[in-house]
Design a protein that fits this description.
Length: 178
């Protein structure tokens, strides 16, 4: 069986754009509250930087919106004209932990992942690897939370409820029009 890698890459990028666009919508209408498959709550917000893109070739248009406490109006306006989210800065919160990560829709690549601070002070008798292991746990947990959000998206995307989700998205998209 021969696989068209270019087609697979394009389909993956399209699914990634749909995922990030859906995440923005869902995070706003749910006040950032998501739930893992095991019932644990976590918060997820898109903030500070969103890149939207639409068109192809010479007609490719991109809008980069950044800023602390930004309402990301230009990015949202881009969605109204058919653009989709191609990159987003995501803030995750669970318990007293907070992560920030930039996620790229084309290949689901993480960049600039900031984890909660790890205490590196060693007391006598402490395991010398404990700070490293805690950091690895926190990195892994961020990826698990993004995976949980992706599972929620795929479940919704593959269900009969997708048309209703699209209608709710359109309603959200056209709220707060300036």
């Amino acid at each position: 069986m021969e696989v068209d890698l270019q087609l697979a890459k394009e389909k993956g990028a399209a699914l990634g754009r749909d995922f990030l666009t859906w995440l923005w919508f869902r995070s706003e209408i749910q006040d950032g509250v998501f739930q893992t498959g095991s019932g644990q709550d976590f918060a997820l917000y898109l903030e500070q930087k969103i890149v939207v893109e639409g068109g192809e070739g010479d007609s490719l248009e991109k809008a980069v919106c950044t800023g602390i406490m930004s309402d990301l109006w230009e990015a949202r306006q881009g969605l109204r004209t058919g653009k989709k989210v191609v990159q987003a800065k995501i803030k995750l919160e669970q318990d007293d932990n907070e992560w920030l990560v930039q996620l790229d829709a084309a290949d689901f690549a993480f960049s600039g992942l900031k984890t909660p601070k790890v205490d590196t002070k060693q007391e006598e008798g402490d395991d010398p690897d404990s700070a490293f292991l805690e950091k690895m746990f926190l990195l892994e947990r961020a990826m698990e939370l993004i995976d949980e959000a992706y599972k929620l998206f795929l479940h919704k995307r593959m269900s009969i409820d997708w048309q209703g989700e699209r209608e709710a998205f359109q309603k959200w998209l056209h709220e707060d029009s300036r």
